[in-house]
Amino acid sequence: MSSTTVGVVGSGTMGSGIAQVVAQNGFNVLLFDIKEEIVIESLTRMRTRLEKLVEKGKILRDELEEINKRIQTSTDLSDMRVCQFVIEAAPEKLSIKKDIFQQLDKYCSEETILATNTSSLSITEIGSITRRPERVAGMHFFNPVPLMPLVEVIRGVITEEETVKALVQFAKALRKIPVTCEDTPGFIVNRIARPFYNEALKIHGERLATIEQIDRIMKKEGKFRMGPFELQDLIGIDINFSTTESVHQGFFGEERFRPHYYQQRMMQSGKLGRKAGVGYYNYDN
Ligand SMILES: NC(=O)c1ccc[n+]([C@@H]2O[C@H](COP(=O)([O-])OP(=O)(O)OC[C@H]3O[C@@H](n4cnc5c(N)ncnc54)[C@H](O)[C@@H]3O)[C@@H](O)[C@H]2O)c1
């Protein structure tokens, strides 16, 4: 058991998964969101997932109780002052992330490492808003966090090697597989993944195949675990759209990364995928 407290800022799809994994591996967690009801709902969903692990015999009931005790919630960002690491998992918008990092920089000790789970935004730019850019880095988990082993640890231009090493070690303590990468738009995985979604949206837009057909072909014949539309629903259509927009901008408008208008329309409709109960498919939340 560790005495380290890890702050998680944003308790949505990723923040709740990160908090769960951090607590399951013996760290104390302080989970933040902007509203009490959001963070409580996130905690409830996490407890349901942990309860299922008990039912499946993957963890003992005693362990579950210990894990639950290690998780505290907050709606006051200044509470993060007690943390040795903070992982931000707020929406994929630079202005939101900069605002959070500016506040964290004010509240947290100089030694605290501030990490962002951004899928695509510049770590260097986020770090530049703080007085400690050498202790700001990317720590990019994959969805669903409890199941996906990969974590990209991203060094900004000013990030110190000590910070990268500490995050690599931390990722290993979470029983994840860290890979280090440079601060480029979309890093490794999200850059590779952009054409997967974009081409599927174009094929659908050109009426060459339906959403269901595209997903079925990619799974049955392509042997992908999920089709591009199912995966967008899992990720969240708003988050996926913002990531494509930011990779496109990051490469100064390079044509192959151009977002598709239909994904934007889906986002505007509020049909955001699993978290909304409806996206390209319907879900029973
Ligand atoms: N969804 C994925 O598959 C995935 C995978 C890897 C990385 N990411 C990245 O993780 C981050 C979070 O994505 P998500 O899918 O969990 O989003 P989400 O929409 O599920 O959750 C975002 C959470 O942030 C909270 N929030 C809103 N404004 C905030 C603020 N000012 N301060 C703190 N919290 C705030 C919201 O209330 C919400 O609970 C994004 O940067 C995203 O790119 C997402």
TrEMBL record:
MF annotations from Gene Ontology: 3-hydroxybutyryl-CoA dehydrogenase activity; NAD+ binding
Keywords (A to Z) from UniProt: NAD, Oxidoreductase
Keyword Cell membrane: no
Residue ranges annotated for the 3-hydroxyacyl-CoA dehydrogenase C-terminal domain, each copy included: 186-283
Chain positions recorded as NAD(+) binding sites: G10, S11, G12, T13, M14, G15, D33, E92, K97, S119, N143, K275
Cross-referenced Gene3D superfamilies: N-(1-d-carboxylethyl)-l-norvaline Dehydrogenase, domain 2, NAD(P)-binding Rossmann-like Domain
Site (Important for catalytic activity): H140
Pathway where this protein functions: Lipid metabolism; butanoate metabolism
Family: Belongs to the 3-hydroxyacyl-CoA dehydrogenase family.
Protein name as catalogued: 3-hydroxybutyryl-CoA dehydrogenase
